[in-house]
Amino acid sequence: QIIIGRVEDGTGAMLIGSSTFRDNVAFHAGSITVESNTLVGQLLSSQESIEITARSGGIITNDDIFATDAELRSRDSITVNNLLEVADFIILDAGTDGTGSITINGATITTAASGTVELTSGAAGGDIVITGSISTFGANLTAASGAITQTAGNTKASDLLALAENGVTLLTTADHISARVTGSGDIQIADTNVDPAHFVDLGSKTG
Fold first, then answer.
1. 88-98: per-residue pLDDT in tens?
2. Contacts of 139 (CB under 8 A, 6+ apart)
3. N or C: which end of the chain has fewer CB within 10 A?
4. pTM, to two decimals
5. pLDDT one-digit tens code per residue, 122-134
């Protein structure tokens, strides 16, 4: 594994430019930004896994990322502004100190047909906001102390699990949907799956 930054106490701001790796690579810093590069073929990629850990701030991705799998963990928020594509799994874990949101800002995050996507905002506060697209086999979205809101794009999955405290709004194409709201707020899901056999299980305190 290639490690860039200090695993124990990564600090400061890290800017990641166009890079290609053959092995697992892990980035550690206080806050981390994947730099935007308009030149064709310029991106962040690995033939193995990519790990990005922000220990005191947030993560912003402004360029395409390709890997076998990707884990982004941030003390504060995570914003994805460009394509994130992997073969196996994507984990976005925001608010490791308790508060932090995830924003998929007009971007696409996608896996191979059997892959999974897991988005988790802060346990004490933080939303999941999607204005882009998710494409995977299994999607797990958790905003334990916030809301899940999608206003554009589509969340496509065979199995979709959404859990939030303050409401769930999603635009989906899914075979199986399970959505729960543990506090105030409603569940609004617009699903385009025309198969009459697809299954939807909803639960909300507000009915």
1. 999 999 999 99
2. 116, 117, 118, 119, 155, 157, 159, 160, 161, 174
3. C
4. 0.94
5. 999 999 999 999 9
